[in-house]
Amino acid sequence: MTDYQLPASVELIGGMEPRPIHIVDYSDEWPRRYAQERTRIVAALGSRALQVEHVGSTAVPGLGAKPIVDILVVVDDADDEDTFRGAFEGAGYVLRVREPRHRMFRTPERDVHVHVYGAGDEEISALLRFRNWLRRNPEDRAAYESLKRELATREWTDMNGYANAKTDLVQEIKARAMATDLLYLRDAYLREFDALVTAVDGDRVALDRTAFYPTGGGQPHDNGALDGASVVDVRKEGDVVWHTVEGDAPGVGETVHGVVDWERRHQLMRTHSAMHVLCGVIWNEWGKAVTGGNMEPLEGRMDFEFDPLPEGFAGRVAELVNAEIAADRESDPGVGARDPRRRHRRPR
After folding, report:
1. 3-class DSSP state for residue 324?
2. Residue 50: φ, ψ to 5°
3. Cα–Cα distance measured from residue 45 to residue 263, given in angstroms and rounded to the nearest whole number
4. How many Cα neighbours within 13 Å face the side chain of 51?
5. C-alpha distances out from residue 212 to 133, 151, 185, 188, 233, Å
């Protein structure tokens, strides 16, 4: 039997419970059971339930799991237990775990676990991001299930020990899930999307996925809206994209609807494409690299290493650019990766 030492800060009401771990194939019954329990919880807590979500492995279609439905409930303050414990117990749930910032209730049959967190707790977005990531990433989903099935072959002094044994892989997956999914790389014409708020820093909002292009690569950021709040700046810091908003910022763990200012985006795309054509033409004709530039919707400036300009330069450039546009060539994103000096050359 694998021993597990419970942290001193965690109180298990009823003590340790040696239980066999059974991993079963995904069942369509799990989301139906969640819906039933959600109705029960909302009826019991009313407005005190700020958010109710299906989390954990049973919330991920195709993922094998213990047949225990995990539910996230957000309240004002998870440590203010007296404001919600009676409602849970009146609805038939039993308090099982008490620890700072977290309570866990369960059904007497132990087939539903309800995790209670306070509004704004970072664990809310962590749970939702982990769920969303596994829903979208079959490789990590398969690795997670494989580990769970292997661990289930062991005996455990308590289910918490089994959960703790998954920590290393869970942290690896969470680290990957922290990166904002850049939807615009897969579909430059995507105008609207839904996303999970993963962090809020003043007027800056981080999402688990975004269609907003951040400033970089020679192109200004997108503008638009998140649930009605205007997006006025977008910056990528590490693997996370931050959206600066004017208006009420959404809360961590909320789902928001993003709308890209398409007129501005399309004008920037057209301008950016035109500037690449110009760079390719000048490199092909004169072998001169771009040294700087700036762009705004439908206007831009490019700097080149000419000293002096060739005679008849403007007319020749216009002729060559118009010829390239008329040729309507296919783009090749791989061109330029082999030789950074040729990064603006259009494929022949």
Report:
1. helix
2. -75, -30
3. 45
4. 23
5. 19, 41, 10, 10, 10
pLDDT 10s digits, 107-156: 999 999 999 999 989 899 889 989 999 998 999 999 999 999 999 999 88
d(CA 108, CA 221): 52
User: How far is the C-alpha of 154 from the C-alpha of 145, rounded, in Å?
Assistant: 15
Strands 69-75 and 51-55 turn out to be antiparallel
Please classify residue 320 by burial: count the beta carbons closer than 10 Å to its beta carbon, then call 0-12 exposed, 13-18 middle and 19+ buried. middle
Nearest to 118 by CA among 253, 298, 286, 266: 253
Q: Which residue has the tokens 């404001």?
A: 83
Q: DSSP code of 334?
A: T
> Tens digits of per-residue pLDDT, 250-270?
988 889 999 999 999 999 999
Work out the number of other CB atoms within 10 angstroms of the CB of residue 86: 11
Residue 333: pLDDT band (50, 70, 90) is low
pLDDT tens, residue by residue, 151-183: 999 988 777 788 889 999 999 998 888 889 999
Left (φ > 0), alpha (ψ -120 to 50) or beta: where does 240 sit?
Answer: beta
Helix residue spans in the chain (DSSP H): 29-45, 85-90, 122-136, 138-151, 159-165, 167-177, 183-186, 262-286, 313-327
Q: Which CATH number describes the domain made up of 181-260?
A: 2.40.30.130
Following DSSP, what letter does each residue of 76-129 receive, concatenated? Answer: S-TT-GGGTHHHHHHTT-EEEEEETTEEEEE-TTS-EEEEEEETT-HHHHHHHH
> Does 181-260 match 11-177 at the fold level?
no
CATH class of 11-177: alpha beta
Q: Cα-Cα-Cα-Cα dihedral of 197, 208, 168, 101, to 10°?
A: 0
- Sorted by sequence, the CB contacts under 8 Å of residue 170 that are 6+ apart come out as 130, 144
Q: Where are the domains of the chain?
A: 11-177, 181-260, 266-342
